[in-house]
Amino acid sequence: MRSLRPCLVALALLCAAACGGDDDGDGTGDGPPSDAALGADSSEILPDAGAATACGPGEEIMYCDRATEICVQQETGPGYIYQCTPLPDGCDATRDCASCADVCGDPGNCVDSDSDNNLTCACPECA
Predict the structure, then answer these.
(1) Quick one: pLDDT at residue 16?
(2) What is the DSSP letter of 90?
(3) Pairing state of beta strands 118-121 and 69-75?
(4) Which residue among 15, 53, 76, 116 sits deepest, i.e. has the most Cβ atoms within 10 Å of its Cβ?
């Protein structure tokens, strides 16, 4: 048992050294090696907040490309359907019903949203 102790100490030191350190080569000691796999800005797995906007609730969330799409929340009676819809002609940066109502089919059904890049299409028959 006594000869095992130096091996365990050496193994523990090797594990500790492998679990941290400078993962991206910038000399800052970034932490676990998994940080390097995410990339400098994590853009491989997380959308760019300036280019994409959240659309939908909870686990059903998707991201719309703000440059070409708008999130449409379509009322269906008891719930909603969320989808990223191509921007209609004339839809300006404000993403309001005044310029983007065509996404609802009947512009009279368009309801402005408090969320960025998001409109709601009301269902008059559902009321």
Answers:
(1) 47
(2) T
(3) parallel
(4) 53
